[in-house]
Specification:
The chain has 157 residues and is mainly β. The chain is 13% helix and 46% strand.
C-alpha cells in the first residue's frame, strides 16, 4: 500500500457501505498530458472506499457528481487486469463544485446540503435537502436563507 494525494472528479454517485461510516465511489483523474496514440491515456479511474466518518459524511452528503476533489489515502494495485486501482481514502476536500445542472428552463443549484430549484416560469423556489427531504418553498429567491434557517431551527441535525 502506497500513500497518495491526488485531485480528481467524482465519477459515480457515492453509495453507503456496509456500516454507517463507510462509502464507495469512483474518482476519475485527468492527466496533464494527452497521448494521442492511447485514447484513454488522459484519464485514470480509481475505485474508492472510505471508512473515515468525516470523509464519509462529506462524500455522501455534500459532494455531487463532477465535483473536483482532493483525496488522500492509500492505493493498492488492481486485483485483476482491466480493473481500476483501489484507493482507501482517509481525507477528502472539495476543491471546486460541478457546474449547475440545467433541465430546460429549470436550474438545480446546490447550496451546501440543500438543492434549490429555479424555474424561469415561477417566482417561488422549492428547496430540498440533498437526501431528498422537503424543506419548503421560498416565496422569492431573496427569502431562501430565511426558509433554510427556519428549517434548521425546527429540524436540528
Amino acid at each position: 500500500m502506497n500513500p497518495i494525494t491526488l485531485d480528481g472528479y467524482l465519477d459515480t454517485a457515492p453509495e453507503p457501505g456496509t456500516h454507517p461510516a463507510a462509502a464507495h465511489f469512483d474518482l476519475i483523474r485527468l492527466h496533464d498530458h494527452l497521448d494521442t496514440t492511447e485514447p484513454d491515456s488522459c484519464a485514470q479511474v480509481f475505485a474508492c472506499t472510505t471508512e473515515t466518518p468525516a470523509a464519509t459524511q462529506l462524500i455522501l452528503h455534500r459532494a455531487q457528481l463532477g465535483d473536483l476533489l482532493r483525496i488522500s489515502g492509500t492505493v493498492t494495485k488492481p486485483g485483476s487486469p482491466g480493473t481500476p486501482p483501489h484507493l482507501r481514502i482517509h481525507t477528502i476536500d472539495i476543491l471546486d463544485t460541478a457546474p449547475l445542472t440545467t433541465l430546460g428552463a429549470t436550474v438545480l443549484e446546490r447550496y451546501g446540503t440543500y438543492v434549490l430549484v429555479f424555474d424561469a416560469d415561477r417566482d417561488e423556489v422549492p428547496v430540498f435537502t440533498t437526501t431528498g427531504r422537503w424543506v419548503g418553498e421560498a416565496a422569492t429567491p431573496g427569502t431562501i436563507g430565511h426558509l433554510i434557517r427556519a428549517f434548521e431551527n425546527t429540524n436540528p441535525l
